[in-house]
Amino acid sequence: ERDSGGLIRGALAARKAAPAPPPGPRPSPFRAPRGGLGELVESLAARLQAAGVRVETNATVEAIVATPHSGFVVSRASGEALRADAVVCAAPAPVAAGLLSELDPALAKGLGTIPYASVANVSLAYPLTALPRPLVGSGYLAPRAERRPINAGTWSSAKWAGRAPEGFALLRVSFGGVGRTGVLEASDERLVEIARDELRTLLGVAKPPRFTRVFRWPTAMPQYELGHLRRVAAIETRLADHPGLALAGNALHGVGLADCVGTGDGAAARIAEFLAKHDDAGNG
């Protein structure tokens, strides 16, 4: 800014002064586990089990309530109630609001005010010979002003290593989001048709894909609307009254993977500090 008279001018000047990149395709700057993000959860579960921790899945929780003295009771749909000294709730905000409504109505109300949007993805696999031109970059975003039925296209196999075998490309077309949820009422077959029309228009891909997959994620994306920081402050004020309870996930402090991992670290630190004080008090 000091040398060029502005941040944008400085960025443009730095780009011009940078050495030209080598010819040919450049490696993607994006990184992810080769087997998909599920590997993170599987690895964590395996390490916990190796340490003697009981890990349960497919167990629906209906409520989290406080006990008369200290700790919590986690009620499950099976009728079983689990007693816990501390709880980390990593559910989406609307779900967390329902779980915590009896424990703290004000906390639950604050979580319930965070709006969410639904999305859907269609993945399509093609042999590279079906693509009229090489895939450049990692995809594109479709501005609302263009009024396209989709909101993004991603070249999954170009963006992340290991997403398609040699000689094939995996592409993804995304639907939904705020103001674009109407298209999600269409059937899976119709979403595939729209995705194919989009790739035909943008890339000239006329041949049918080798296979397609449709993934729907209802109420998956929290929306940080104006006033979000005030909502977060009110939620964390209420949370201070429950030192053995922690929240994690994408509802409060960021929707990206790194943000979610950060909330997990924060929740773990909060619970570890609480348990340490709890043990000290018990030993005293």
Topology:
Layout: H1 7-17, H2 38-50, E1 61-66, E2 72-76, E3 81-84, E4 87-89, H3 93-99, H4 105-112, E5 116-127, E6 139-141, E7 152-154, H5 156-159, E8 168-176, H6 188-203, E9 211-222, H7 228-239, E10 245-247, H8 257-283
Parallel strand pairs: 4-10
Antiparallel strand pairs: 1-2, 2-3, 5-8, 5-9, 6-7, 7-8
Helix pairs in contact: 3-4, 4-7
The geometry reads as: globular
- The average pLDDT value, as a whole number, equals 90
Radius of gyration: 24 Å
Low-confidence stretches: none
What distance lies between the first and last C-alpha atoms, to the nearest angstrom? 59 Å
Structure, explained:
This protein starts with 6 loop residues before the first helix and ends with a helix. With 284 residues, the protein is α+β, with helices and mostly antiparallel strands. The strands form three sheets. A five-stranded antiparallel sheet has the order 6-7-8-5-9. It has a three-stranded antiparallel sheet with strand order 1-2-3, with no helix packed on it. The protein has a two-stranded parallel ribbon with strand order 4-10. It is built from eight helices and ten strands. It has helices at 7-17, 38-50, 93-99, 105-112, 156-159, 188-203, 228-239, 257-283; strands spanning 61-66, 72-76, 81-84, 87-89, 116-127, 139-141, 152-154, 168-176, 211-222, 245-247. Helix 3 (93-99) runs antiparallel to helix 4 (105-112) and helix 4 (105-112) packs antiparallel against helix 7. A hairpin with a 4-residue loop joins strand 2 (72-76) and strand 3 (81-84).
